[in-house]
């Protein structure tokens, strides 16, 4: 109890000092940049939370304060002139290295010593497949908007370059939110409007649909080129708490999984599908509300993260029927397209959910 009280006093003191410093930095920035008041408020909360956690974790305050200053400058620059993302955005590494900025910032919040990477032996197998010109696709759950950065924080020390080269299928929120933009600029992204957001506002629906068709065309070209690693969340969004307050892997969309399966089939080169479970919500949790306005409030916590790479998924048991007319060749119509699609989706989701639950059992208590 005495230790808990001491931590509480330490946190209260840290919050007061940090909030004062952050407020001063933002006040100076507001004089130079025309930033919407909404984002000034969000930055004040986010940065204060971040630096307080840095202090409580006994990390080097000078290092992360300098990093915070760099990030703040980039956010303010994009506020003045928002970056326009192409359907396929390649990570910006020079003249400014946005990958390093995002990964270093995320690393400050990850308790790496107590984090977990299971199935690491799969990574070398995947690297060999990619080196041979094959494609690799991760069907993953998604918990934090910083999942690409946490992916790098955990993998860069053990498999240099693998996370860096991964292409993430990203929704429009991480490419339009001013706080998220600098992080997104440092990643390889296929920028798509999710089905949850494509209809709103109605006057932009046709424009968003055209954009999504361009993304699909580009994705097919990448599959055909080969040697790609692509991460996608078939849920179309982040996991949320259930009725008991426990985070569970959100349901997967069978159409999303089938789309990747069909694209892989048209590529004339092998594509390997792997289930990936990610435990990241304690560090930067999503808002409980789904589909709110762009510019969500953020709070962070220093905490371990976890990844579990499952074994490659064998699609053969789900390819006996016809997915489309006469595809695959020699198929029978006994199993309908819908039945096969739903069976595969349930199979993939069950693996990701099971491996996630094992991670959560170990990491939720730390």
Please give a handful of descriptors for the protein shown.
366 residues; 8 strands; 12 helices; alpha/beta; single chain; eight-stranded mixed beta sheet
Could you explain the architecture of this structure?
The chain is an alpha/beta fold. Helix content is 48%, strand content 10%. The chain starts with a helix and ends with a helix. Helix 1 (2-32) runs antiparallel to helix 2 (37-56). The chain has helices at residues 2-32, 37-56, 61-80, 98-107, 121-131, 147-155, 162-165, 173-176, 181-185, 205-225, 254-266, 337-363, and strands spanning 88-89, 116-118, 135-140, 167-170, 188-191, 229-232, 271-279, 306-309. The protein has an 8-stranded mixed sheet with strand order 1-5-4-6-3-7-8-2, with helices on both faces. It contains 12 helices and 8 strands. The model is unreliable at 291-295 (pLDDT under 50).
């Amino acid at each position: 109890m005495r230790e808990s009280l001491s931590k509480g006093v330490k946190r209260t003191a840290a919050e007061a000092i940090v909030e004062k410093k952050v407020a001063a930095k933002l006040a100076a920035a507001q004089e130079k940049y025309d930033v919407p008041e909404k984002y000034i408020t969000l930055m004040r909360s986010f940065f204060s939370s971040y630096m307080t956690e840095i202090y409580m974790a006994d990390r080097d305050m000078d290092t992360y304060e300098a990093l915070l200053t760099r990030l703040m400058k980039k956010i303010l620059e994009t506020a003045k002139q928002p970056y326009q993302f192409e359907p396929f955005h390649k990570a910006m590494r020079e003249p400014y290295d946005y990958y390093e900025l995002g990964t270093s910032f995320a690393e400050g919040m990850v308790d790496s010593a107590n984090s977990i990477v299971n199935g690491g032996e799969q990574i070398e197998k995947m690297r060999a497949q990619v080196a041979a010109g094959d494609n690799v696709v991760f069907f993953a759950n998604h918990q934090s908007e910083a999942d690409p950065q946490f992916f790098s924080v955990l993998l860069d020390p053990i498999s240099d370059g693998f996370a860096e080269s991964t292409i993430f299928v990203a929704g429009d929120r991480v490419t339009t939110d001013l706080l998220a933009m600098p992080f997104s600029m440092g990643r390889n992204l296929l920028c798509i409007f999710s089905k949850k957001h494509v209809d709103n506002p109605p006057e932009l629906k046709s424009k968003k649909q055209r954009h999504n068709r361009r993304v699909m065309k580009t994705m097919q070209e990448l599959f055909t080129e080969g040697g790609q690693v692509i991460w996608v969340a078939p849920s179309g969004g982040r996991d949320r708490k259930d009725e008991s307050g426990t985070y569970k892997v959100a349901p997967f969309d069978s159409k999303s999984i089938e789309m990747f399966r069909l694209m892989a089939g048209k590529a004339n080169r092998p594509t390997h599908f792997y289930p990936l479970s990610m435990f990241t919500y304690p560090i930067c949790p999503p808002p409980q509300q789904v589909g709110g306005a762009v510019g969500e409030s953020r709070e962070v916590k220093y905490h371990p993260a976890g990844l579990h790479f499952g074994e490659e998924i064998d699609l053969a048991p789900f390819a006996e029927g016809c997915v489309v007319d006469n595809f695959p060749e020699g198929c029978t119509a006994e199993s309908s397209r819908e039945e096969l699609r739903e069976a595969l989706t349930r199979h993939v989701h069950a693996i990701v959910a099971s491996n996630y639950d094992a991670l959560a059992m170990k990491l939720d208590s730390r």
